[in-house]
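Q: What residues go here?
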């Protein structure tokens, strides 16, 4: 029922989301390219929709809470550790080579970043794209608690409760008790993107199970609530709320097509390849590409490459190759090894 063949569209969507985020970062501050790829920052929204779908599928296939935790750990931590180490090492070496003072990251910053919980330790991300990872971890915790409580069969009701809580925080707590609202966002940043994860779960139900007005009502509530959270996201710096709603509508429409098996046209060797390396590409690309390689290619007097060449013909291929190596020699084998060793008796 949930065979790999039926998820190829999601693999392709991951690839599209990943490359859109990469191009958004690489062209930031470089008009007119910036204007072309501005909407790439919403690639993370697409990631969160996909995560809601895939993680709900994963938790249903998990035999125990422990097996779910092991599968998630094996999937995200080994590649992340390597990327954090490479990024911190290159960034430190870059400062030493250019004789710039290095105030960050120190060893403590590096060690805490390895936990992926630096947000709660009030430690800066070594690469600012890591900000999304705490949202993923909090969602894993949320879905795990539902699993332990035996609530997976009531996920639609839980979804309505979550969305109602989000609306309560936005429409009542925020206007009347702004400090309380800020505290809620501080301790549970997932609140801002919760509707996307819930929408992903709901699309899973529509595709593989229930197809009724209740599911579509919940989707509509998720859409409206996420649109209302616009002012609490970084999207306010790039485009209007109306534009954000249009993008959300496109993403929800894409998932409607997927639920009806009408999205196969996006599946091709390129999108599948990008989907395969999407996680490694996401966590390795930004600081190495945007902060080091692109400025070096543009400003180094012996090179002086133009922006287009620097981004598309040098930096992007280099980072894709690096992500491919990390995926092939770290991400995939570590995932298999950890699962084989820790789930052998399950």
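A:
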């Amino acid at each position: 029922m949930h065979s790999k063949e039926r998820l190829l569209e999601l693999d392709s969507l991951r690839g599209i989301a990943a490359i859109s985020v990469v191009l958004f970062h690489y062209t930031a501050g470089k008009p007119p390219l910036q204007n072309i790829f501005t909407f790439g920052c919403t690639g993370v929204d697409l990631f969160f929709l996909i995560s809601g779908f895939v993680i709900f599928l994963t938790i249903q296939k998990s035999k125990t809470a422990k097996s779910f935790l092991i599968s998630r750990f094996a999937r995200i931590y080994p590649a992340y550790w390597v990327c954090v180490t490479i990024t911190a090492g290159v960034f430190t070496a870059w400062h030493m080579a250019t004789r710039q003072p290095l105030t960050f990251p120190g060893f403590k910053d590096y060690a805490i970043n390895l936990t992926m919980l630096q947000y709660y330790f009030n430690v800066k991300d070594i690469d600012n794209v890591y900000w999304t990872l705490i949202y993923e971890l909090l969602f894993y915790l949320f879905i795990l608690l539902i699993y332990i409580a035996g609530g997976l069969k009531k996920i639609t009701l839980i979804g309505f409760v979550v969305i109602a809580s989000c609306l309560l925080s936005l429409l009542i707590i925020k206007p009347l008790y702004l400090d309380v609202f800020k505290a809620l966002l501080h301790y549970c940043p997932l609140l801002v993107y919760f509707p996307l994860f819930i929408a992903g779960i709901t699309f899973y139900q529509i595709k593989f199970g229930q197809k009724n007005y209740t599911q579509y009502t919940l989707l509509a509530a998720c859409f409206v609530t996420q649109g209302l959270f616009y002012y609490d996201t970084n999207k306010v710096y790039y485009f209007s709320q109306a534009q954000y709603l249009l993008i959300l509508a496109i993403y929800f429409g894409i998932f409607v097509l997927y639920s009806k098996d009408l999205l196969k046209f996006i599946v091709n060797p390129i999108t599948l390849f990008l989907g395969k390396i999407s996680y490694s590409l996401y966590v390795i690309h930004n600081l190495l590409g945007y902060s080091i390689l692109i400025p070096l290619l543009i400003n180094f007097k012996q090179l002086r490459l133009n922006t287009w060449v620097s981004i598309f013909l040098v930096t992007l291929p280099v980072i894709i190759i690096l992500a491919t190596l990390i995926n092939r020699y770290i991400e995939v084998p570590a995932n298999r090894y950890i699962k084989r060793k820790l789930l052998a008796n399950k």
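A: Context that may help when evaluating the design: The mean pLDDT is 94. DSSP finds 14 helices and no strands in the chain.
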